[in-house]
Specification:
Distance between the termini: 32 Å
Function: Catalyzes the first step in hexosamine metabolism, converting fructose-6P into glucosamine-6P using glutamine as a nitrogen source.
Subcellular location: Cytoplasm
Mean pLDDT: 95
Strand order of the largest sheet: 4-3-5-6-7
Keywords: Aminotransferase, Cytoplasm, Glutamine amidotransferase, Repeat, Transferase
Main location: cytoplasm
Bound molecules: 5-amino-5-deoxy-1-O-phosphono-D-mannitol
Order of helices and strands: HHEEHEHEHEHEHEHHHEHEEHEEH
Number of strands: 12
GO molecular function, one term: carbohydrate derivative binding
Structural class: alpha/beta
Low-confidence stretches: none
Length: 366
């Protein structure tokens, strides 16, 4: 059942080239330049006219929502807020007709997310569900939606569901943008091509497994980890830190790289591994300066960079090269080494990575 892998988590990490392909299949046709989203067709025009979009989710799905916020604002020019479902529900939020709520949930059964959308629906908002489990409660409660088609995820740590969420949320953003006319025909086509190529690029990134394992071995005894990224890669840093916490019980924090100088930099010394997602994008030059700030304080830098990068490698203690991609789809690829890092550290420390302590696969209590 684990398909020859030691754990479900590793099997699911390695399934990603296929699951990403499955999440796009029948929807995206880059050759023809078309995008079909059956589950939102009726609502496409309404979505494009939304005053604002509120994304509600928990955990890893919330991280996918944070990336979607940047993508939707960039491509659709609609204001987006991302809320922890539990916070959104209990603070009497201003929500009503004309608002669109996107609920992101692997299981479709997360109680916090479910009650949040129930109350928003009662107040007249339109609910769009992005779920993995077909027929789940959140999917049934939604007016419209798109399944992620990642297949059953058994490992408690979400991996393949996350990358499928990112792929589908990109499709939704592109669909709204084309309906609205807020993206040029050329950029639209370019992003279809980029999305189509992500599956192969993820397969390439998975070949780094041995290299990541060696890095895991080097840093497995660290007491704390810091994860940094900017822009589209900032939520990837949060996700990397969450994976490490869940699987290896090492304290880890994710931060926007530039925010470091406003506090967390006080933690940096020669014992602190700092994982920096620094792929080539519009934030790149700034991230290079953030790396210099860490090295000046003797932090250990583990950098995730784009193939061909010659600037960061001489500055970093360890480097992982990932295939180059448009910044909008880059998180789908840059998260792969972070999933592998958490997995290997957890296994090297002797923990049950498929069933980490204190956690359940689906959290059905508020
Ligand atoms: O099923 P959901 O996507 O709604 O679950 C949300 C979180 O409980 C989930 O992502 C959790 O944070 C995972 N254990 C992360 O690996």
């Amino acid at each position: 059942e684990k398909g020859g892998y030691d754990h479900f988590m590793l099997k699911e990490i390695f399934e990603q080239p296929q699951t990403i392909f499955d999440s796009l299949r029948g929807r995206l046709d880059a050759k023809k330049g078309t995008l079909t989203m059956g589950g939102i067709r009726e609502y496409a025009e309404m979505l494009s006219k939304a005053n604002r979009i509120i994304i509600v989710a928990c955990g890893t799905s919330w991280h996918a929502g944070l990336i979607a916020e940047y993508v939707i604002e960039e491509l659709c020019r609609i204001p987006v807020e991302v809320e922890y479902a539990s916070e959104f529900r209990y603070r009497n939020p201003v929500v009503g007709p004309g608002d669109v709520i996107i609920a992101v949930s692997q299981s479709g059964e997360t109680a916090d997310t479910l009650v949040a959308i129930e109350s928003a629906k009662e107040k007249g908002a339109i609910i769009l569900g992005i779920c993995n489990v077909v027929g789940s409660s959140i999917a049934r409660l939604s007016h419209a939606g798109a399944y992620t088609h990642a297949g059953p995820e058994i490992g408690v740590a979400s991996t393949k569901a996350f990358t499928a969420q990112l792929a589908v949320l990109c499709l939704v953003a592109l669909k709204i943008a084309s309906e609205k006319g807020s993206v040029s025909a050329q950029r639209f086509q370019h992003l279809l091509d980029e999305l189509e190529q992500t599956s192969d690029k993820v397969a390439t990134a998975l070949k780094l497994d041995d290299q990541v394992k060696a890095i895991a071995d080097k840093y497995k005894d660290a007491r704390d980890f810091l994860y940094l990224g900017r822009g589209y890669n900032f939520p990837v840093a949060l996700e990397g830190a969450l994976k490490l916490k869940e699987i290896s019980y090492i304290h880890a924090e994710g931060y926007p790289a530039a925010e470091m100088k406003h506090g967390p930099i006080a933690l940096v010394d020669e014992n602190l591994p700092v994982v920096i997602v620094a792929t080539k994008d519009s934030y790149y030059e700034k991230v290079v300066s953030n790396i210099q700030e860490i090295k000046a304080r003797k932090g250990k830098v583990i950098a995730i960079v784009t193939e061909g990068d010659q600037t960061i490698p001489p500055m970093a203690d360890d480097v992982i090269f990932v295939p180059s991609a448009d910044e909008i789809v880059a998180p789908i690829i840059s998260v792969i080494p972070l999933q592998l890092l958490a997995y290997h550290i957890g296994v090297l420390k002797g923990f049950d990575v498929d069933k980490p302590r204190n956690l359940a696969k689906s959290v059905t209590v508020e």
